[in-house]
Structure formats: structure tokens, C-alpha cells
From TrEMBL:
One of its GO terms (biological process) is negative regulation of ribosome biogenesis. InterPro entries: Iojap/RsfS/C7orf30, NT_sf. The lineage of its organism: Bacteria, Bacillati, Actinomycetota, Actinomycetes, Micromonosporales. It is found in: Cytoplasm. Functions as a ribosomal silencing factor. Interacts with ribosomal protein uL14 (rplN), blocking formation of intersubunit bridge B8. Prevents association of the 30S and 50S ribosomal subunits and the formation of functional ribosomes, thus repressing translation. Its main location: cytoplasm. It comes from the Bacteria. The keyword Cytoplasm applies. This is Ribosomal silencing factor RsfS. Keywords: Cytoplasm, Repressor, Translation regulation. PANTHER family: IOJAP SUPERFAMILY ORTHOLOG, MITOCHONDRIAL ASSEMBLY OF RIBOSOMAL LARGE SUBUNIT PROTEIN 1. GO terms for molecular function: ribosomal large subunit binding. The keyword Repressor applies. It comes from Micromonospora phaseoli. Interacts with ribosomal protein uL14 (rplN). The gene is rsfS.
Amino acid sequence: MTVSERAHELAIAAAQAAADKKAQDIVIIDVGDQLAITDAFLLAAAPNERQVLAIVDAVEEALLNLPEKAKPVRREGERGGRWVLLDYVDIVVHVQHTEEREFYALDRLWKDCPTIPFVDRDLASAEAAAGSGE
């Protein structure tokens, strides 16, 4: 894994914020060996423009609330709500409408890069509760 500790922290926090807003197909890709400009891509999808924008807002808020605050240096695509890019230098967050996610297939484009494991904490809690018989 080539991502820095900071990039890992940002990616996991952003992924959890996206999951909290019911983002789909959340993937963190370690692109550090392939790109000099960032360590990781976070990809997330939503079925409509309103949810795309809600996920983007949640990611921004979550990263601003970290002990070492993070603000995007660039934000693109917000007007259409189909594909919003948040550039945090260490990570780049792509929140796409489901149709754009399928069409542009960033997952396939970067398929040779390793992924960084992410498990939604709510899902993990539910599975733990089910496993303990609660």
C-alpha cells in the first residue's frame, strides 16, 4: 500500500460519510504508484442527483470535522449533480450518478491498482449483533 497515513484517514472518513448517506458501490483505490498527484481515489455512486449532492455535502462536513481539518482544494461538477469531484490533494473523491459510474467505469480503468478495504461501520455493527445472537 502506497497511500500515506493522512490519505488513508481521509479516505476512510470520506467513505464512511458516503455510506452514512446510503452511497452505493463505495470503493477506495490506491493510485499512488500510478499517479503523482494523489494517493487514492474514493468512488461512490447514488441513483439520483439530489443524493449525489447530499453525499458530497456529507463528505465535506466529515473531513472538516476531523481533528486535522481537510478542505477540498478543488470542487467540480456540482451544478449538474451527475458527477462531483472533490480534490483533497491526498485523495480525490468521485461521487457519481449510477449511470455515470457505469458508463465511465473508473473501477475498470484503475483495475490494476490495489483497493483499500472499507467496511461500513453500521454494516459491521449489524453483522456483529447478528453473530452474537442479539
